[in-house]
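User: Okay, second chain of the day. Same drill as before: sequence in, structure tokens out.
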Amino acid sequence: MSIFDKLQKYIGSSVGSKRFMSVDVADINAAEAEFGFKLPSSLKRFYQSVGYGWFGVEDRSDIRNLFVHPLDMVDLYNGTSEFSPPEEFLPGDVPFFDCGSFRFLVFRPSSSNSEFVYRHIGESEPIANDIEDFVEKLLLNPHFYEE
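Assistant: Same drill. Structure tokens below.
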């Protein structure tokens, strides 16, 4: 059983702190074409299995926990999204997860391991080995990345 299977019950839900919508494969392909590189395989599997959407918490209004839609990732990366942080992302950092309050988690496609998940503030230590590891950590603590 995949860790993503634990999120299946939230797909298509329109209410609640955890809710996801499906992502069309054409949108994933279009995002990759815009970027000029492939998304990490674990992120692609997440989009194909679960989709995009919120992994929120009830007791923290400052936590957004949004898995960003692939086409919105392109806008964030290019700095054309209304949700872009005031400071630009570091070169090579691709945002895929909006924590809230202009905080994002990123992957680095040109790094030695493009599956690693990092905070967008330039830290060199990954907070997760891939999206499966990231989701497992979120299931245990929806704001573990603050620690």
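The mean pLDDT is 91.

User: Thanks, on to the next one.
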